[in-house]
Amino acid sequence: MTEAPAAVTDAPAADLPVVDGPRLPPSPRLPRALEALAFVAARRRNVIWLNRTGGRCVTVKIPVFGDALVVSDPALAKQIFTTSPDVLHNIQPNLSRLLGAGSVFGLEGAAHRQRRKLLTPPLHGRNIRAYEDIVEEETRREMASWPDGVEFESLEPMMRITLNIILRAVFGADGVELQQLRDLLPKWVTLGSRLSLLPSPKGPPIRFSPWSKLASYRRAYDGLIDTLITRARQDPNLENRTDVLSLFLRSTYDDGSTMARSEIGDELLTLLAAGHETTASTLGWAFERISRHPAVLQRLADEAAGEDNTYRLATIYEVQRNRTVIDFAGRHVAVPLYELGEWRIPEDFSILISLLQLHSDPDVYPDPERFDPQRFIDAKPNTFSWVPFGGGTRRCVGAAFSHMEMDIVLRTVLRHFTIQTTSAAGEKWHHRGVAFTPKKGGRVVLYRRATPLA
Ligand code: HEM
User: Fold this and answer.
1) Is residue 254 within 8 Å of 114, Cβ to Cβ?
2) 389, 393, 403: which to mutate for ligand 1, most atoms within 8 A of CB?
3) CB of 83 sitting under 6 A from ligand 1
4) 322 CB near ligand 1 (under 6 Å)
5) Pocket flag, ligand 1, residue 319 (CB < 6 Å)
6) Which ligand 1 atom minimizes the distance to the CA of 267?
7) How many CB atoms are closer than 10 A to CB 298?
8) Mean pLDDT of 210-219
9) Which residue's CA is the nearest one to ligand 1's atom 7?
10) Degrees (nearest 5) of the Cα angle 299, 302, 303?
11) For 112-148, how does the pLDDT look when each residue is reduced to its tens digit (9 = 90+)?
12) Which tens digit of pLDDT belongs to each residue from 43-84?
């Protein structure tokens, strides 16, 4: 898929193929400043507008990412996801500038492949079944204080549930450290999410600036991680532990080396930053959606009495399509020219695949605005047109883990509560820095069942 850049000699030799230079898709006719402002201030609506006016592949210049393509053409998206990671790197800058150089987000080539090999086993198959009890316990703990018949925001308790699950299942934290991480990390995530949209300062952060606050949270975090690692290494039960931290301590790269302490700290923070708000936001949307669809809700309640989860999973897939919380998967062109469909994209361009727009394609999803889990009963999600977790070698490593979490959280709530339906208009979209959430926090009214369903 790559080609050499335009020849620089006076004339190409007769026996060499003629090589063309860049060929970019059209650009919207907007002044640069307005284009940048529209992208920052109203990103979702801006992309819908770009799609309508410029087509499914447009050239833009935007803050932080610079020269970029916004792609919502399914064939081009498929090509991008399946292009070699040596040709397309991860988007630059990415979250690793906040999470640290040891984060998988910042790794490329062999280092990325090796880290994925280490990350994948703890977050898949038999291993994640070991976390189901933690998910149910944390959901029940949170549910104990829910008001009966009084409207409340589901998003906040979902944030606490997914945070506690990650701290226990991934960090292996308990006792004092669990409490301290519980207090510290939401502050880090909130501030980090806001700063993720701004350029990083060049030198050390100025005192009392938000960047220096973030650095002070990070120092406190590193101290807690050191304690957890030291304690895990001394734990006589380390071999039997199932948390991701102890799996990291036990695993080795292909050459027999182990993860450095700083890599473990960066990677655990990565799993938290990538997995906590995204899963909680999807759950917030799930409550927002199902409370507005009585027939869906009835089927979910009927199913929750038993062990089947076919309809619940279809509902989760449809929430992820209809209310996609991460709008883009991004890549960075790392070769002189990247041939994408009919276009030739120069080195250093960013490519933003609009996951949101791919999920609104009426050719793939008839009447795309309609919320209907039946779509995923009739057909399984397609790898390249159902992409809430991105695709290719960088596809979300926590996808199976988050599905397990969402499945068990919803099952537990449905078994213990009835959810009041509402005819209120759907909540608006709100961008929190990383994920899109329901603007009013996914408000619901629940009634505790006299006898739980199972
Ligand atoms: C509903 C929940 C989630 C959503 C919507 C989501 C979405 C995404 C997306 C869109 C990407 C980028 C993929 C790409 O560039 O092609 C990603 C990457 C990633 N996600 Fe998730 N994610 C979720 C949950 C989780 C969880 C629970 C974890 C871990 C516990 C996690 C860990 C990661 C990591 C480590 C990456 C980086 C992978 C790499 O660069 O190789 N995510 N996620």
Assistant:
1) yes
2) 389
3) no
4) no
5) no
6) 35
7) 12
8) 93
9) 389
10) 85
11) 999 999 999 889 888 898 899 999 999 999 999 999 9
12) 888 888 888 888 899 999 988 899 999 999 999 999 999 999
**pLDDT at residue 15, rounded to an integer:** 52
Q: Which atom of ligand 1 is nearest to the CA of 112?
A: 41
Q: Is 308 left (phi over 0), alpha (psi -120 to 50) or beta?
A: beta
Give, using CA atoms, the residue closest to atom 39 of ligand 1: 394
Rounded mean pLDDT of the chain? 91
Contact 437, 162 (CB under 8 A): no
CA separation for the pair 23, 27 (Å, rounded): 12
Q: Each residue of 56-80: b (16+ CB within 10 Å) or e?
A: bbbbbebebbebbbbbbbbebbbbb
What pLDDT was estimated at residue 6?
Answer: 34
Q: How far is the CA of 192 from the centre of ligand 1 (A)?
A: 17
Please name the residues in contact with 296: beta carbons below 8 A apart, sequence gap of 6 or more: 289, 290, 315, 371, 373
Separation of CA 449 and ligand 1 centre (Å): 35
Phi/psi class of residue 64: alpha, beta or left (left: φ > 0; alpha: ψ in -120 to 50)?
A: left
Percent of the chain residues topping a pLDDT of 70: 96
The residue type found at 276 is: H
Ligand 1 pocket member 128 (CB < 6 A): no
Cα of 397 from ligand 1 centre, angstroms: 6
Does residue 12 surpass a pLDDT of 60?
Answer: no
